[in-house]
UniProtKB/TrEMBL annotation:
PANTHER family per the UniProt record, alphabetical: CYSTEINE PROTEASE FAMILY C1-RELATED
Protein known as: Peptidase C1A papain C-terminal domain-containing protein
The species this protein was found in: Pristionchus mayeri
UniProt keyword annotation of Disulfide bond present: yes
Start and end residues of each stretch annotated as Disordered: 32-62
A GO BP annotation: proteolysis
Amino acid sequence: QPYTPHHPYNPYNPYYPSYQTPSPVALSQWTTTAAPAASTTTPTSSSTPSPTHNGTVPDSLDWREVGVEGPVKSQGTCGACWAFAIMVALESQYAMKHAGNVSLSEQNLMECSTQNYECRGRNTAIAMEYIAQNEGIGTEKSYPYLSYQTHCRYSTASIGGRDSGYVPITSGDENALKKAVATIGPIAVGFDAGHSSFQYYESGVYFEPACSSSALDHAILVIGYGTDPEQGDYWLIKNSWGTSWGEEGKLARNRDSNCAIATEAVYPIV
């Protein structure tokens, strides 16, 4: 289906006005030290191989249209994108399987998943394994986000969600990612976001010719996909920089030019 932005349509590549400035996190995010990619992390017994799907999938899909997606969140000046991508992916799975929306605690994950780098980077696989081994994660209400690290204050009395591990999508395979988005739901992915065109993105189908297929400096959520007759195939992406960035916190990303979007793609098992 044609891509219809919330703002007036901008031609491809989308423009970013000179008066617009990126959010504080956009300025600090690019200096974070990335943790090892999920695709290179040794899976534990709770992890399973990427699923195969031989059937057809829809040509376009937007999980917002069926009420799976909650509001866009903001990570503030803390480089905790990894925690936001995982929590929103887990929230989406709960919404799909339990017919209800729950907001889970990024702060809980950031402070208690000690193998990660808190505000300085991420490893999505390790974080999902932490939730499984911890037998749950707190709700946002019981453990609100602060945008900085203190100490672990998790209580089993405030569990809002659980997973039993994670599933990695075949690295670099955008077709496998498309099938996973269609059959599983929103997928947490790594992304090469270290470009001013991304930091200042406003609307339209995003394309960055300098994107890398291996440089992962951000984590986001793929919530759908489609095809525009003029701009071609695109991914629908949900960011964690609040609603003032992009199209109310979301972006349409050109498919098949990667930006590392399929290099590290995972989802939680619920």
